[in-house]
Structures are given as C-alpha cells and as structure tokens.
UniProtKB/TrEMBL annotation:
CDD domains, per the entry: FReD
Protein name (record): Ficolin-1-A isoform X1
Entry GO terms, CC: extracellular space
Gene name as annotated: LOC106152665
Record's keyword terms, sorted: Signal
Length: 306
C-alpha cells in the first residue's frame, strides 16, 4: 500500500515539474480549469496519462498566438485522436517531457529538412539533443580523426559513439535559420569514474561558407571550467581542411586555435595520462589537464527557455 501511494505521489510530482518545464509550449485547459500542455504532433493517449484528476475530460481550447503553435488544437481523450501538428517537432524539447518519452532516436524537420537525432530525456529536465559522444574504454573506439566530409555529415552510431554532423548543427542552431537560442551541456568522465559537467549559454554554429564557426557564451553552471576559452569564434578544422596544421597534429576535428585547451574529438586510444610533442588525446584542460585523455565525453544542446 505504501509503495503504491509513493508511486502515485511520484507521478504527480513528475507531472507538476513537467508543466513548469514546458511554459513555452501550447497549453490547453480542461473543464476543471487544470492546464495541460499539448505538444504539436503528439498523440492524445500520452496526455491521457496527464489527466489523472480528470479522466473523462477532453483537452481543448489551445490559445492562439503561442510561440510555437498558431493553430487551435482539439484533443478528445475518449477517441484518442491525434493532435494536429501545426509545427513538426524541431528538437528534443518538442517531445513529451521526461518520464513520458524515452531517450532514443527521433526524427525532426528543420527548415523543411529531415534530420534524425538522439534525444536524452533523462538527464536533468530531459529534452537534450546529443551531438557528440565518446566511449574510449571500449575495445575498438570509433576513430574521430576524420575528414571534413565526415564531420559535415556525421559518423558513428547515434546514441553510442558518434558525431551528429556540422550541417545538422548549423541548420538547427544558427539564429538565421531558427528562432531558438541553445545552451550547450558538456559531460566528462575520467578513468577513475570522476565525472563533471558544464552548461554554456548561446551555442550556435556558423554555416559552411563561414567554416562552421563556433559561437559560444560563458560557463553558466558546472564544475568543469571553461576550456572553450581560446577557441570561441574559431572555424572547424579537419585534417583535410586544416588551420595551421592543428587538426593534423591534434589528431581530431575541432575548432582549433593557437590557444586550444580542449580536444574532445581527439585520439581516444591514449586512455588516461599520456605524453608526446603535441597533446592529441581526448582532453579538457580545466577538468583533467591536456595530458589526460578522458574515458567518455558527451556534448548536447537544448533551447534556453525550457
Ligand atoms: C525516421 O526517418 C528514417 C529515415 O527517413 C526512417 O527510416 C524512420 O522510420 C523514421 N522514424 C520514425 C520514428 O519516424
Ligand atoms: C592515436 O594514438 C595511438 C597511440 O596511443 C597511435 O598508435 C595512433 O596512431 C594515434 N592515432 C592517430 C590518428 O594519430
Ligand atoms: C598521471 O599524472 C598525474 C599528474 O602528473 C600523476 O599525479 C598521476 O600519478 C599519473 N597517473 C598515472 C596512472 O600515471
């Protein structure tokens, strides 16, 4: 009995948090006056779970003029119809929130282009679109010493070790294409199980004619420090589209400069302390130094206002 009650309370708490997370979404009022949230294109059966206090109510009356939806929305819980998708989902925050949708691979339409991305719906708040991941302790880590074509189009296995692609990143994050402003979250782990994360504001990538230039604000939160200092506003470099031979000596693809303090796409075979003429491991100076190659890394993005 006690555990059932706990489960019910947990669900209610979860739903409350989800509402708070979703203030920018389309809200719908049910007859009792409770406010629910409708995501464009979502299935009303999902929202049946939300209507715990109102099992027979129907969701209706989506106010017009909200930022991401201008169409009225009608959902009839009894017939479980599909909500009209006035806007297809753009990124992971358009999915139903953490606890309802699962982490995994989802399709999005950005500037009428289809793209497939891995969404983390668990890590604080959910709604994170993961665009880079390393797991260097596996037997055959993925080779990140790739050319520009691979970095533009992405490589690896979504949801495991992969690079999502500069073209996708540009389409989604560039303010000229999309009104959303993104935060960057970086997660790092060393070989002793020490972990750290950092949130950075205002992450976006320039277009191909601008060398996929990195635009990034400061560290807002987290313990890893800012090792992007020195590469902000730099172009993306690869061994075949190099900048001062930096990709060729650092064995990766990155926004290199003369003051490079991070190399998360570097050589993953070093595993911990290493030495050499040029630091080429998977490093982040303010976490474990440039002569320590990390076990795992993850870079993810999420719109600012959610
Ligand atoms: C996503 O798009 C891919 C490629 O177009 C397609 O094969 C897959 O079925 C789509 N997945 C979903 C969930 O729609
Ligand atoms: C990565 O480092 C290993 C040694 O740890 C070396 O054998 C390998 O050639 C390096 N790979 C690249 C692309 O430099
Ligand atoms: C790695 O380097 C650090 C700093 O130089 C040192 O304290 C540590 O003992 C080294 N660890 C190993 C396993 O060599």
């Amino acid at each position: 009995m006690g555990s059932v009650w706990f489960a019910v309370v947990s669900v209610l708490v979860l739903v409350q948090l989800s509402f708070a997370d979703a203030v920018m979404k389309n809200s719908c009022t049910v007859s009792s006056g409770n406010v629910y949230v409708i995501y464009p294109g979502s299935d009303c059966t999902v929202f049946a779970q939300w209507a715990i206090n109102n099992p027979s109510g129907s969701l209706q009356h989506c106010p017009k003029g909200m930022k991401f939806n201008t169409e009225p929305c009608q959902c009839d819980l009894a017939s479980k119809v599909q909500c009209p998708a006035s806007n297809p989902p753009l990124d992971c925050v358009d999915l139903p929130p953490a606890g309802i949708s699962v982490s995994g691979i989802y399709n999005f339409t950005v500037n009428s282009q289809e793209m497939t991305a891995y969404c983390d719906m668990v890590t604080p708040g959910g709604g994170w679109l993961v665009f880079q991941r390393r797991e260097t302790s596996i037997q055959k880590p993925l080779d990140f010493y790739q050319g520009m074509y691979a970095y533009e189009n992405g490589f690896g296995q979504l949801g495991f070790e992969f690079w999502w692609g500069l073209q996708n990143l540009y389409q989604l994050t560039n303010p000229a294409n999309n009104i959303r402003t993104y935060n960057l979250r970086v997660d790092l782990k060393d070989f002793n199980g020490k972990t750290g994360y950092g949130y950075f504001s205002n992450f976006y990538i320039g277009g191909p004619s601008d060398g996929y230039r990195l635009h990034l604000g400061g560290l807002e939160e987290g313990i890893i420090g800012d090792s992007f200092i020195g590469i902000k506003n730099m172009m993306f470099c690869t061994r075949d589209a190099d900048c001062n031979n930096m990709a060729a000596t650092h064995h990766g693809g990155w926004w290199y400069s003369d003051d490079t303090r991070s190399n998360l796409n570097g050589n993953g075979t070093h595993q911990g302390n290493y030495s050499g003429d040029v630091p080429d491991g998977v490093y982040y100076e303010t976490f474990r130094g440039i002569w320590y190659s990390l076990e795992s890394t993850r870079m993810a993005l999420k719109p600012l206002h959610t």
